[in-house]
Amino acid sequence: MKTILIVEDEPKLLEVVSSYLKKEGFHTLEALTANDAILLIKNHSVDFVILDLMLPDMSGEALCQRIRQTHTLPVLMLTAKVSEEDRINGLAIGADDYMVKPFSPRELVLRVKTILRRTGDEGLLAEQITYNEGELKIDAREQEVYIHGDLVSLTPNEFKLLLTFGRHPNRVFSREELVEKILGFDYEGDTRTIDQHVKNLRSKMETNPKSPRYIITVFGVGYKFSGGNHV
């Protein structure tokens, strides 16, 4: 049974979301504040976070960044902000998806299931991929990435994107292909979302993100992974 942490300061909405998730077989934890959420994540095994951006003690963006420092669990943001810039900022700080209020609780449950499917272990093989004599290591089982021996903190989508690239070096992927592999075939947003994920990856793993060695832009098509020697 997957455990979903709902961080929402509106008690009625919190109750509704929790009720719908429980009906679908999920276990839920509820937090009205960011500090409560931090304690719950510390003391419980949490598989997924539903996070409202407007919290009384800390912004949802700041809490998401805190979570990302130590965890790779999926985060779905709930927001009243509807501009493209706000949505891109949410993805940039580590959210896997977002929903704009007001929303359908049934759709929220569907989003949760979709994200869990695409970030789950069932598609990962027990293997390690190493490039450039150990400079880059991708551990598929543990969902961890190391650069020069240092652990790199990635979101689930960023990890899945890098794993896809790493398993298919020098193959050119279109944005549409990457959207289907990373975000799911039912994703209806802009394919340029992939560009933001690539930008995030480069900032975390490239010595010079503006002149990347690993994730190369293929102009007019998409991206490819150029990892050097592969072990």
UniProtKB/TrEMBL annotation:
Subcellular location: Cytoplasm
Residue ranges flagged as DNA-binding region: 126-227
GO biological process per UniProt: regulation of DNA-templated transcription
One cellular component term from this protein's GO annotations in UniProt: protein-DNA complex
Modified sites of kind 4-aspartylphosphate: D52
Response regulatory domain segment(s): 3-116
Major place of residence: cytoplasm
Protein name per the record: DNA-binding response regulator
Residue ranges annotated for the OmpR/PhoB-type domain, each copy included: 126-227
Source taxonomy: Bacteria, Bacillati, Bacillota, Bacilli, Bacillales
Gene3D superfamilies assigned: 3.40.50.2300, 6.10.250.690, Winged helix-like DNA-binding domain superfamily/Winged helix DNA-binding domain
Species of provenance: Fictibacillus phosphorivorans
